[in-house]
Every structure is written in C-alpha cells, then in structure tokens.
Write a structure and sequence with these properties.
Number of helices of chain B: 12
Structural class of chain A: mainly alpha
Number of strands of chain A: 0
Radius of gyration of chain A: 21 Å
Order of helices and strands of chain B: HHHHEHEHHHHHHH
Low-confidence stretches of chain A: 5-9, 349-357
Chains: A mainly alpha (357), B mainly alpha (319), C alpha/beta (514)
Order of helices and strands of chain A: HHHHHHHHHHHHHHHH
Helix content of chain A: over 70%
Structural class of chain B: mainly alpha
Strand order of the largest sheet of chain B: 1-2
Strand content of chain B: under 5%
Largest sheet of chain B: 2 strands, antiparallel
Mean pLDDT of chain B: 89
Oligomer: heterotrimer
Number of helices of chain A: 16
Helix content of chain B: 55-70%
Strand content of chain A: under 5%
Radius of gyration of chain B: 20 Å
Chain lengths: 357, 319, 514
C-alpha cells in the first residue's frame, strides 16, 4: 500500500525507534502526572520479564499469538485489505483445534496434534475467506464484515463449546488431550507454558516473506494490494487474490488459536466478550510496519510490555492499562511521522533537506 | 402480558439500545462526510462513557441532583472532542493514515480511561454507581397506546438523539456549512479553490464526531450500565460505523440503521419470553443482528454513496 | 492597448520544487481587455505560474502587481478578492452537487440559517443569460456534458466577480464545435471588460484568439510577441527550442487481413444505460485505425470490452477469427493483444513496484520468469535491463520505483513492455497525453513502426491532430456507436468535428453500421 511505501522509503529504522522512545516518554509523563515514579515502573516492567526463567518463558508465551495475529493483519494489509477480524478467526481456530483435539483423541497423538493445528489454520482461513469473498464478489467493505464476523465467531464457538465439548458444571470445554506444549523445557523454564506455537509463528513469518517477495502468487498479491486497477489490466484476477489473501491471513490467525488452546490452556473457555487477540494483532502489525521481520520484533516488544505491565502494577503500583497508552502512542508516532520528523529535525533532517534543494 | 404493552416495551427497549448508536453514527457522518475515516468511534464512545461516569458521579456528589447526568453529558462532549482532536491532528495535519490513526484512538481510549478510573477510585476497576437519567413521560403523548409507552416514555437522551437527527439533516443539506463540509469530503480541491478551508472543515467534522460519539458513550453509562468499566463499551462504536455505512452516510438513514440494530438487540430479550424460543440456542439469537447486517449489506447497499475523497489526506501542493 | 497600468504584472517570479526550478525569473504583463496566451510544453512551468497567481503556491522570489499595486496572494480567497478567477483544466466540480451548488459554494446567499437556493439559482440563471452560456442551474454535474461543465467552471469565477480569468488548457476535452463556442464566449467576456490569460500548447487556438503570446520553456520566458506578428512555425520553434515538423513521417500502409473485428457490440453500464450501442468496426494488419471522439462517448468502455474488462450484452468481438468477447483479461492478453492504457498511473503501472517488476506485469507467470511458482529475479532483471536500454527509458536503475520516473519515461516503460510482447494487435489509448514534444514523437514513431511490421494498431485519442497525423483510417465514435469511417486525406477537422458531435454521419465502408 502506498502509505506504507512512504514509511519504507526513508529512515526505515530511525522513525520507529524514535517513535518507541517517544511512546515511553508519553507513558512516563502520564505516570508523573498520576503521581507515579516512571523509572521505578519501567524497571519493574523489565524485571518482571527478565527476572526469572518462568517469567521469561511466560513472556515468550505471551508473544506467540501476537506474532501470528500480527502477521495475519500485516499480510492482509500487504494485499490492500484491513482485516479487523483476526479476533474471530482466532476463536474459530481455537474451536476447530478443540473439536479435533477432543473428539479425535482416540487416534495416536502424532496424528491428532497436527490434524488439530491444520484444522485451526484451515477453518481460520475459510472464516476470513468469507469476508474476502464478500469483498471480491459484492464489493462489501471488509472492515464491516470482519467486525460482524467477530461477533458471529464468538457466539458460534460458545455454542459449539457449550453443546458439544462442555465440561459439566463449568464454563469451559473438557480438557484437550492433544497438546502442543514443549514439556521437555519445563525444568529449564520452571514450568512456563512454552509451546510449539512459537515455532509455528516463526515459520509463518518465514513463509510470509518468501511467499510475498519470492513467489509468483506473492507478486500478484502485492500488485493487487498496491494497485488493483493495474493488476486487473495486466490480467490478474483481483477478486481471487483478495479471497486468497484473506484466507492466508485467516490461517495465521487460526494457528494462533491452536497455540492458545493446545499449548497454553488445554481447554477452551466460553467467552463472555471478545478476547481481543485481533486488536492486539492490529497494533503489532502497525508497529512492525507490516513487514514479517518487523512484526516479529513488534510482537516481542508488545509481548514484553503487556507481560511486564503486570509486574509494573505489582512493583510500582501503576495500573497496567498504562501500557496501552504507551503502545497507542508509539503507533500514533509511527503513523504521524511528521511529528517524529519535526522532533528530529534539528538533529538530522535539516542536513538532508538542504541536499535535496 | 398483553400484546400492546409488550410491543410498547419492545419499542422502548429498542430505543434505549439505539440511542447511543444514533449519536455515534451521527458523529461518524460528520467526520466521514468531511472526508476523514473515523474507525475511532469506539474509542471516542469509551472516552464519553468514562467522562460521563466520572463527571456525573462528582456532580452527584456536589449536589447537582437531577442535573448531575447532564453534567456528565457535558463532560463527555468535552472529553470526546479532546480525544477526537488527536485523530484530527494525526490524520489531517500530519496526514497519517486515517484508519491507523483511528485505531490509535481506540487504543489510547482503552488504556487511558481505565488508567484514570484506577487513579481516581483507588485502584478500582470501575466507577462508583451513579443515578443516571430517569425516563421522562411526555404529557398527553405518553398516553397514546404503544407509542406512548414505546417512544414518549423514554430517556431524555433518546429525545435529544431524535431531535439531533433532524437538526443534523438540516445542517448537512440546507446550510452553507453543510454544503461546504460535503464538498470537502467529495472534492477537496474544488472547495479549496473556492476559498473553503479544507483542513478547518475537516477538523470541525472530526471534532463534532468526537462530541457526538462522546454523548453516545455517555448515554450508555447514564441510561444502561450506571457505571464505567472495561466492558462498558464493547463494540458499539463499530456497530455505529456499520449503521453509518448502512444508512449511506445520511442522518435519517443512519437513524434507521441504528434503530434496526437496537431492535435486534432488544428482541433477544423479548424472544426469550416465548416458549418456542427455548428450542433455539441462545447464541443463535445473539447472532441475529450481525448475521442480518451482513445479509442486508449483501443484498442492498452499493458502495457508490461513500464520500469520494474519504480516506485521502488533502495535499494542495500535489502536482 | 491602454496606457493604464496592466491589470496583472508578474515580476521575476521564481519557484523551486525539490530537484527542479519550475519558474525561473518569469515576468509577464496582462493588459485590460486582452487575451494573453501562455504557450509552453507540458512541464514547462505554465501551471505552476498560474497556481502562483491564484494563490495556491507561493513564489520563492519575485512579486505580483494587480492594477499597479503590489499584492501578496497567499491563498485562493485572496486571489478571488482581487478579482482573479481560474478555469481549471481538470474541472473542480463536485459531481453529486447541482450546477448552482457548485457555483455558490463558499459564497452562499443565505436566508436565515439556510442557503437561499431560490435566489442562488436565479443569480446563476442571470449570469448564464448575460454571457450566453445556456446552463441549467438545477442540473446535477454528472448529468451534463463536458462542455457544459466547463461553462460551470467559468460561471464560478464570474459569480465571484472575477475580472481576470485564467483558462488552463481549456480545449483539451472539447470537440471542434465546442471549441468554437468557447472562443465566442471568451470574446464576449473580453468585450464585457474581462482580461484573459489562456494557457495552452495548441498553436491553432493561439493564432485564432489571442492578442499576445508569451512562450516559456523549462521555466524561463523565451519571448513575448504580438500574435499578429508571428506564425505557428515560429511559435513552435520557440516552444520546443528546435525546428518542429508537424507532419509525421510515414510510408503508405501495407494493409493485410482483418485482425480485430467488432460486430454490433452492445453493452450497458450498472445503471442500465447503453454505453456501447451496436458498435462495429475492424482493424486490419498493417494499419493504424484511429478512433476519434469526444471524451465520454464510449471510448473507455470500448477498450474495456476488447480487453476483457467489461462484459458485453450482445454482438461479437473476434481476434484473427476467434471470438474474444467476454473472455477474461488474461485470456485476451494471451491472444497476443497488447494494450497501452489511457491512464498510465492507474492502469498501466504499479507505481510502487520497481521498473523491473513492472516490466513483467503481464508475463510474470510464464517461463522463464516463473520457475515452479517462484520468480527468477535474475532473468526478470536482465529482461528489464534490455528493455530499458532498447527503449531508452531514463531511470537511475531498474530497481527504482516506477513512481520516481518522469511521465514520459513511465510511458516509454509501458510501451517497451507492450511492444516487447510482439503483439498481433496493439491498442494505444491516449498514448501521448501529458507528454512533451520529444516523447510524443517517440511514441508516435513506435506506433508507426509497429504498423510497418504488419501489426494491427488501434489508436484512441481525443487529440484530433494526432488522429489525423498518425492514423491510416479514422472511425468516429459518438454515443457508443461508430458514426463515420473516413480516410484522413479525405476529411478535415470540421467534418470530423461534426461527426464527433453527432450531427453528421458518414459511412466510409460497409462496416459502418449507422
């Protein structure tokens, strides 16, 4: 998309780094206004993440779904689509994984586990594909349909869990025998809930990069994302690419769901409201400038901040919501680069501008 | 319960649910008609709901009595406007991507409102309960069967919303301001060359959207929840966006769409009164409004009615 | 010319943009009651200069005087206050609004809080009568013709009391008849005491209507001359900086078999209105068929129908005997059809792809570029290098974004890509729009070279000169029909103009179904 090109054209690294610093600065100011000590708070945050093997492992656990939902949103963005529905796709992925993981538990695990993961990706993808199909065939804005599909996914999965998987008397499914946990790391990370989903996420990022920039189909998708008109004139099928892009985006989100139920909780809850995975994914995708490597780094940052925020509230008594302000500000500064440029101007850009003239 | 009373109550509940959506959708119209996508309505409603809960609570404490909720509404307007200013600065002045900038609003709202609630109320996750608005029966009119109960025994905010639909329709389509605002959203450089200040109009559009979405959020705390917590606003802003698109960026259309959403929310409370509904899983009843929206979008609305310059920052220096 | 101070005097205006000097110390005077033409190629700096006069840009150096008084025009409002009005080349009209709404926007008459539409449309009607413009105040913009839309633009300036009118390339989209009417309107405006600056690159119009001409080239004033003391050749030489031949060199065509045949093609748009209306013609190997017509008479739809972008309701389109109607764009491309689209930014290039990536936009999926689903970057780059060299596309490297190229080089890149496919049929839509003289010559030569190699060439252009000079045969399109087929040597602008306006039909051969 044109707007992202701008971001990439200049100062690829400096602007995001400055944006991150400014975001922390805003957070610090907000804390000072609220009567907290920002230095204490931030150090509590990082201490929480890096303080013990368990917490470090748990932070990685926190980053994993962020990577996948971030990739999901970023991939759609690259094809010119705003997938606000990663949330619903995660839920559908969870539900597919739970159903297979519970109902096919009789089969050998080396079959059930991959099958659950594949089902999660497939159904997440198909679910996102609905929005892609409606966009391609009927021209309906995917933002609206994915919002609606989020709600539908929530209720649909609640229905499935309540009707077919329920642990009697509880608001959740039976335990899922299929597991993605990396139990061999338990001693190393003090039983932190590490699971294979992290590697699935890294694999997805690699796939994202190779597919989009090296393959024939990725070329097509980028062309459609950057200029659908020219793509159509050149003989590409824009509609099919839109559906395909949404499908792949949904697969990423669905895989995030598999990781959560098979690797972390080992059951699926009945959700009272949207669990919010997709919205975190939007933030991660934007922070990562919709590039797979950027998304992984952004997920690490975001995961560190959100996991650490609990430590912040424990250690320095700062409400953990502060971290959302920090993240919102970082995205704000990345989006409104003019502000960052303005801040940097005296140091850096002045020289450059003179050169141009 | 007899059918007439039931219908009246259903209508009344419909309007309770619709009111917040009407305000927010009207707000969305102002912003998008001026050419600025406002996906931040959700966050702006959050700001409004928060401000109304806090403002209303302190006003109640200060002895404003029945006027306390109105103080809450005014706080919501101010805080909504301030929140939308962030969106305006980023997307108009600094030409940030409008969708991203709107997303930022949602983030900042979610973070800052709860942060402040915890700050103000000693770490509590929600604001203290407040009295909020009470329903007002319009003399004489409230005695009419069905609509007397349904419409003329509503919260003051509902009356305000209906009046605003008419006022905003008039403003958009009959006044110079409305003509200019729409021109800026359709063809900013045409407006610019005639001396209409494009960015000023867009700022006004976005800030009005913040104020209206703020009232929308306030409506929820002051008529439905009586408190503000993390889940007070959960998706209403997005539904309002859907209502705006569904209503083709027209105040009357958006009103109709908002009432439709309100109705489908209300009906799920009433359908459970009937024996036959026991056979339908409740989740499917909950899904109705969302499924219906998609079906309606598929069958009816074209995309031609969106303002033409929607989403594009205005750059007069473009050669 | 009066002895009073000129109505506008520009003194040594300089304007720089990153990388270029758009205006380099330009001075110019406009006398009262004068039509002063500003002549220059695309990119010479005419529009920049006028945008400065209209307050859209600020000059870096120099000053402006109006009626002898120095002024600073820092926004369009100021320009309007000073009585300056601009008729933009790309109309600045809000499509869903009415004529009246467009005219009063920003200066609405009010009754209470409301816009007083009654008095507004009354004022518009009066203005229309005073200047003989015949505009319906209550019509919606998207319902009126291009000529009418231009009059609305003129009325916008008159409504604001403009005395100085700037016309920016006003004839680009008009039929010859509409041009005549526009000239009459301009004369009437001058007679009523207005002064006019006419920006154009068309010499014929300058000779017909202007009193003086200022020629600018690469941002500098080359000369200002009395129109009566000059001639088109002299002006052209000054504009381009070298001798120019208006005739395109070409041999007589060796016409072969019919390649593309359209027979009774009908297509409706989304609103159910016929846009192609029983359209028939054929293009033979070794000839250039030019489609003449006013913008909006079905040219775009015709292209879409041939290239598979639009479904047709009835009729047939065949390529070398095979039916191609309603095939997908890719299937049509694979029938050896190349297409230089009319909007190169929107349809011809992915501006944020590299030059190299753009060169395989239609062929990336074929060998040797595609190997088992992966693109062979080396071969793609080699291919791009070759084309860039062969067609002299000026770019720092093939890894640069297409966006960074000049318009002429972007067009060269598209032409390189399309010709390289060795097409049986080459479709060129507005291939020279917005290009400077050098690039225009290049493009036209390429088209003729293709025709000389026995390719069938379909040229669609709004520029009558181009149609007359390049085509071997001309078909005139009007309201989705071919209303006439003629040979360029047997016709003239006047006759073509009448056909383009739908008031004359002339079947050149049996194919013309009228």
């Amino acid at each position: 998309m044109q707007r992202f090109k701008k971001i990439f054209a200049t100062d690829v690294y400096i602007v995001p780094l400055v944006a991150i610093l400014l975001g922390f600065l805003v957070g610090a100011i907000v804390m000072i206004v609220g009567g907290y000590n920002p230095i204490e708070a931030y150090s509590a945050l990082f201490q929480r993440v890096f303080g013990s093997p368990y917490d470090f492992g748990e932070a990685i656990r926190e980053m994993t779904p962020l990577m996948l939902t971030g990739l999901a949103v970023a991939f759609a963005f690259r094809s010119g689509l705003f997938n606000i529905g990663a949330d619903g796709q995660v839920i559908i992925g969870m539900t597919a994984a739970s159903v297979i993981g519970i109902k096919f538990a009789g089969l050998p695990m080396f079959i059930v586990v991959p099958l659950s993961v594949i089902a999660a990706g497939l159904f997440g993808g198909l679910y996102a594909g609905i929005a892609g199909y409606l966009k391609a065939k009927r021209g309906i804005n995917e933002v609206i349909t994915t919002i609606m599909l989020n709600w539908i996914a929530l209720f649909l999965s609640n229905y499935i869990v309540r009707t077919f998987l329920l642990l009697p008397g509880q608001n959740r499914s039976e335990d899922i025998p299929a597991s993605l946990s990396m139990t061999f790391l338990n001693s190393l990370f003090d039983n932190a809930r590490l699971h294979w989903g992290t590697f699935i996420a890294l694999g997805a990022a690699t796939f994202f990069y190779i597919f989009l920039w090296k393959s024939k189909q990725g070329y097509e998708m980028r062309a459609v994302g950057l200029n659908p008109h020219a793509a159509e004139y050149a003989g590409m099928n824009v509609g099919r690419n839109v559906i395909k892009a949404m499908f792949i985006s949904g697969v990423f989100a669905g895989l995030a769901g598999a990781g959560e139920v098979l690797g972390v909780f080992h059951y699926q809850s009945i959700f009272a409201a949207s669990p919010g995975y997709g919205f975190d994914g939007i933030a991660v995708a934007l922070l990562g400038l919709t590039h797979p490597l950027g998304v992984i780094l952004a997920a690490i940052l975001y995961g560190t901040l959100t996991y650490g925020s609990a430590g912040m509230s424990f250690g320095a008594d700062v409400p953990p919501e502060l971290i959302r302000i920090v993240i919102g500000s970082i995205i704000f500064f990345i989006a409104a680069q003019g502000i960052v440029r303005w801040v940097l101007k005296p140091f850096y850009f002045k020289r450059k501008k003179e050169k141009v003239l | 319960m007899d059918v007439l009373t039931l219908l009246g109550q259903l209508l009344n509940t419909t309007l309770v649910f619709s009111t917040a959506l009407i305000f927010a959708a009207l707000g969305g119209i102002f912003s998008e008609r001026s050419g600025v996508v406002n996906i931040g309505l959700e966050g702006l409603m959050m700001f409004g709901a928060f401000a109304a809960a806090v403002g209303g609570y302190y006003a109640q404490d200060a002895g404003f009595g029945a006027w306390a909720p109105w103080v809450g509404v005014i706080c919501a307007i101010v805080v909504g406007a301030l929140g939308s200013l962030i969106h305006a600065v980023a997307s108009i002045t600094f030409k940030a991507d409008q969708t991203i900038s709107g997303t930022v609003i949602n983030f900042l709202a979610a973070g800052s409102t709860l942060y402040m609630v915890k700050l103000l109320f000693e770490g509590s996750g929600e604001t203290p309960l407040l009295a909020g608005f009470s329903k007002y029966k319009v003399p004489l009119l409230s005695d009419i069967p069905i609509i007397g109960e349904g419409i003329f025994s509503s919260y003051p905010t509902t009356y305000l919303a209906i009046v605003l639909v008419i006022v905003i329709y008039f403003v958009l389509f009959k006044t110079p301001f409305g003509l200019r605002l729409r021109a800026v959203g359709e063809h900013p450089s045409a407006a610019d060359t005639l001396g209409v200040n494009v960015n000023k109009m867009r700022y006004i559009g976005v800030i009005l959207s913040g104020m209206l979405a703020g009232i929308g959020g306030a409506t929820i705390t002051l008529t439905t929840t009586s408190t503000f917590a993390h889940n007070t606003i959960s998706g209403q802003g997005f539904i309002a966006i859907a209502a705006m698109i569904f209503g083709k960026w027209n105040p009357v259309g958006a009103f109709g769409a908002a009432v439709f959403f309100g109705f489908s929310q209300a009906i799920r409370n009433y359908v459970q009164l009937f024996e036959w509904s026991k056979n339908i899983p409740q989740e499917f009843i909950f899904m109705i409004p969302y499924v219906l929206t998609i079906i309606v979008l598929v069958s009816a609305v074209g995309r031609s009615s969106a303002p033409k310059a929607l989403g594009q920052p205005y750059d007069p220096g473009k050669r | 010319m009066s002895a009073a101070a000129p109505v506008v005097e520009l003194k040594q205006i300089t304007k720089r943009f990153p990388g270029i000097i758009a205006n380099d110390s330009i001075s110019l005077t406009l006398e009262k009651g004068e039509i002063h033409a500003l002549l220059g190629e695309n990119g010479a700096g005419k529009s920049t200069l006028m945008n400065i006069v209209f307050g859209l840009y600020q000059p870096d150096e120099g000053s402006i005087e109006i009626d002898g008084k120095p002024v600073i025009i820092d926004n369009p409002n100021k320009a309007i206050e000073l009585g300056i009005g601009m008729v933009h080349q790309h109309f600045k009209l809000v499509e869903p609004f009415t004529v009246t709404e467009n005219i009063v926007l920003g200066m609405e008459p009010k009754k209470g809080l409301k816009i007083d539409y009654k008095s507004a449309s009354e004022q518009v009607r009066k203005l229309s009568e005073q200047y003989g413009l015949q505009v319906d105040p209550n019509a919606k913009i998207h319902d009126i013709s291009v000529g009418m839309q231009q009059r609305v633009e003129i009325m916008k300036t008159l409504y604001r009391g403009a005395d100085i009118l700037i016309f920016d390339e006003p004839t680009a989209v008009l039929t010859p008849q509409e041009i005549i009417e526009l000239m009459a309107i301009m004369k009437r405006l001058v007679a009523e005491g207005k002064s006019i600056i006419l920006i154009t690159h068309k010499l014929k119009e300058i000779m017909q209507i202007s009193d003086r001409v200022t020629i600018i080239r690469r941002g500098k004033v080359i000369d200002t001359v009395q129109t009566s003391n000059t001639n088109p050749n002299e002006l052209a030489e000054k504009m381009v900086g070298r001798g120019v031949t208006f005739k395109v060199d070409k041999q007589a065509p060796h016409v072969g078999q019919a390649v593309l045949k359209l027979n009774d093609v009908n297509s409706k748009n989304k609103d159910g209105i016929s846009v192609l209306n029983g359209l028939s013609f054929e293009v033979k190997a070794g000839e250039i068929l030019g489609i003449a017509g006013v913008d909006g008479n079905g040219q775009s739809e015709l292209l879409q129908a041939i290239t598979g972008l639009r479904k047709i309701d009835s009729g047939s389109i065949t390529m070398t005997g095979k039916e191609i109607a309603n095939l997908s764009p890719r299937e049509v491309i694979e029938m050896n059809v190349s297409h230089i689209p009319e909007d190169r930014h929107k349809h011809g290039l992915v501006l944020d792809f590299t030059v190299s990536e753009n060169m395989v936009l239609e062929t990336y999926y074929k060998s040797p570029y595609n190997k088992n689903g992966f693109l062979d970057k080396e071969i793609i780059n080699k291919h791009a290098e070759d084309l860039v060299k062969q067609f002299d596309v000026r770019t720092p490297s093939i890894e640069n974004m297409a966006r960074s190229l000049s318009g002429g080089n972007q067009q060269k890149a598209i032409i390189a890509r399309e010709i390289d496919k060795n097409p049986t049929l080459l479709i060129a839509a507005q291939p020279t729009r917005g290009l400077d003289v050098g690039a225009i010559e290049f493009v036209q030569k390429q088209l003729i070279a293709q025709r000389d190699q026995g390719k069938a060439v379909l040229l669609i252009s709004f520029e009558l000169d181009e149609i007359m000079n390049v085509s071997d045969r001309i078909a005139v399109i009007y309201e989705g029909q071919i209303v006439g087929e003629v040979f360029p040597q047997d016709t003239n602008d006047q006759e073509l103009g009448l056909m383009m306006a739908g008031s004359l039909k002339r079947g050149g051969n049996a194919n013309a179904k009228v």
